[in-house]
Amino acid sequence: MPAPPYEGTGPTVTDSQNLLAEQRRAVILDEVRRRGGVRVQELTRKLNVSDMTVRRDLDALARQGVVEKVHGGAVPVVEASTHEPGFEAKSGLEQNAKEAIARTAAAMAVPGSAIALSGGTTTYALARHLLEVPDLTVVTNSVRVADVFHTAQRAGGGSGPRPGSATVVLTGGVRTPSDSLVGPVADQAIRSLHFDVLFLGVHGISAEAGLSTPNLAEAETNRRLVRSARRVVVVADHTKWGTVGLSSFATLEEVDTLVTDGGLSARTREEIEERLPGLVVAGESPDAAGTAGT
Fold first, then answer.
1. Quick one: pLDDT at residue 19?
2. DSSP one-letter code for 234
3. What is the pLDDT of residues 50-77, one digit of tens each?
4. How many CB atoms lie within 10 A of CB 44?
5. DSSP code of 251?
6. CB neighbour burial string for 115-132, b if at least 16 within 10 angstroms, e if fewer
7. Contact of 233 with 256, CB cutoff 8 Å
8. 136: closest CA among 161, 107, 108, 115?
9. pLDDT band at 286 (very low <50, low <70, confident <90, very high)
10. Which residue has the higher pLDDT, 288 or 225?
């Protein structure tokens, strides 16, 4: 007896459209979050793969902490809105996506401009790509980001411009689990500054809550960063969409460009494009990044 048709949205994947593991898992995660849960049998039909392949994908997503396996399928992991993972815990997630996003965003930095980098593992990846952009003035509240430039400066030698030769300003403040500096000291330092572009990492992003974080002090510091920037570029992989932290600090309408990866569903992309002036998907449109500092 033939299997009943899959009732979820989106086309079934044919043999000629078999997805790579990372792409399959992005589809699975999107289904879990959108529908509140999925069954293994449904996913085998949608993805046109074996039961064992789906179970391996669910095991991988469960290890990442983004789904919870249940009998016959998986459901979303419901985290407290105040839960804030540490830098090391986050750095191992979506590494390929973060690297692609960082590479794309770095092309948006104009030599000689003043930029700001918030804390986060994606902005940390971005900092490494910015080492080759000459004459930048970089303001950051991330200890990790500042260390990328300082390490490159110490390693450099000879005369003339070299990697890491940017002028780096590290704000003071209280250190968070993600190695960001926040609080009144950081807020005061940022208040009097003006940036051509802010590259902003986020804990969560959604249509309803906008940009959010589980840390109240970090929310206020991020508000200051947004207010001080002429342009705001959010760098966030697809898993951040639909996540909501305790405190919102900006609406989607305050964002000029979102740089993300190809894991977003077509429906989500349409929702973002309705609210943001610019959506850049790393790896899909190399010439679409444009110039954020102009």
1. 61
2. E
3. 999 999 999 988 887 778 888 888 887 7
4. 18
5. -
6. bbbbbbbbbbbbbbbbbe
7. yes
8. 115
9. very low
10. 225
- The whole-number pLDDT of residue 79 equals 53
Q: What is the DSSP letter of 250?
A: E
For 116, the enclosing helix (H) or strand (E) is strand 114-117
For residue 186, give both structure tokens: 């950081």
Residue indicated by tokens 């970090």: 218
Give the number of C-alpha atoms closer than 13 A to the C-alpha of residue 123, restricted to the C-beta side: 28
Residue 272 confidence (pLDDT) above 70: yes
DSSP codes joined into one string, 118-180? -SSHHHHHHHHHHTTSTT-EEEESBHHHHHHHHHHHHH--SSS--TT-SEEEE---EEPTTSB
Start-to-end CA distance of the chain, whole Å, equals 61
Which tokens sit at 213? 């974080």
Q: According to the model, what pLDDT value does residue 230 have? A: 97
Task: Give me the residue label for tokens 């992991």.
Answer: 77
Q: Which amino acid is at 265?
A: S
